[in-house]
Amino acid sequence: MNRILVIARKELVETFRDRRAMLMALATAALAGPIFLVLIFNMIASQGERARTLSLPVGGAEHAPALVAFLEREGVRILPLPADAEARIRAGELDVALVVDPAFAAQVADGRSGKVRLIADRSRDRARASIDQAETLLRAYGRQWGGQRLLMRGVVPAVAQPLDVVVEDLATPQQSGALVLFLVAYYGLFAAVMGGMPLALDATAGERERQSLEPLLATPAAAHEIVVGKWLAVAAFAALVVVVTLAGFALTLSFAPLPPVGVPFLFGGREFARFLAILVPMIALMPAALLWLGSRGRTIKEAQTNLSLLLFVVSVIPVVQLFLQRREPDWLVAVPVSGQYLLLNRALRGEPIALVDLALSCAVPAALVALLLWSIARRYADEAVLAGK
Q1: The whole model's pTM is what?
Q2: Which terminus of the chain, N or C, has less C-beta within 10 A?
Q3: pLDDT per residue over 139-158, tens digit each?
């Protein structure tokens, strides 16, 4: 055990020797994800503000005074229609414009549908909130107008609406907010991989390139002690990066504009502790996988290519799960990465996590850690690692 700890200490000391690089890595872990999330919140909040204070250029407003009055009552700022409205919408200077048909009054008088044109460019993300709001208001006016027509003919408007649908949203505010905060879970998994990557590279391919691996193998330490020591060092640094990343989210979200986007503060001390508990299997498994892949690279560049495959897999799996239309099967909790992402989202939603699910999410990663470390130890014992075979 002492030899294992000595090797782990050696790897950590060599890692922290370059203090500038380590501080940069920790600062990036603490700030990259949270800042990106805050930028998303600011964008959502600004779009909501743009939608709430809709400015709508209207052409032919004199032909539909009742419609214009309705829009103004709903808080819409009516502006004159520029002559080059379509060009300005294509250029992104205007979000949406409304043009009333000159024959609108005659169409209404004849009991026909009044024609209006809503000019917009839906390919522009920033304009979609304003377009949707304008379209919703026009449809609401149409329903109100249709109801008045029915009353004038002695028909109760409810006759035209035989189905009254009331949607009861059972989601709590925390569950609704989890849809927005999925990046917290994503970056938590990502940190478990990225945190150990530099140290794993240096402890495998880097050590072989510096030709410091041969003296290490010549020490009295057994191959499995060397491997476990390296794994402990990589796992310790990965755990540090995960803690710093989650702490960065907790601190940054306390200053984020959450109320304007309808999200309560969901990442306090309780969520922090639950996230750490859920990520423990990844903090153990990812360093073992990184060391296994790194030990198979003849050079640092080749090892980086191997490690990038693992990074790609861990990055893609949560994205695929995010867009799944079906309910996740129960066995998915036992699959590494997928299971942790599933449990992290449950933690964000404030749902209870069964001990059975937590145990299943640990079982397979634990078995894989043992298998990977055994495989690496065999390579070290055979000294095949020196040739990068």
Answers
A1: 0.68
A2: N
A3: 888 888 777 776 777 666 66
